[in-house]
Amino acid sequence: MADKDHGFSDKMKGAVNKVKGEAKDQWGNATDDTSMQAEGKYDKTKGNVQDKIGEVKDKFSDGER
């Protein structure tokens, strides 16, 4: 069960990073700040990776039952 909790945690972190990244990206677009846009894109990518890691952890924990 602990692995499933870790998968959920990774998914939550991923969701937070995706939202934060989207906000930075949009702010960068609005202010023509390419550095902020890049940070936003990085955060969104990081969030997507964390989400995938959570899904993999969930699959492995489901398979162990």
Automatic annotation (TrEMBL):
Polar residues bias locations: 28-37
Segments of this protein annotated with the region Disordered: 1-65
Residues in CsbD-like domain copies: 10-62
UniProt biased composition (Basic and acidic residues): 1-25, 52-65
Pfam families reported for this sequence: CsbD (PF05532)
Protein name per UniProt: CsbD family protein
Similarity-based family: Belongs to the UPF0337 (CsbD) family.
Domain of life: Bacteria
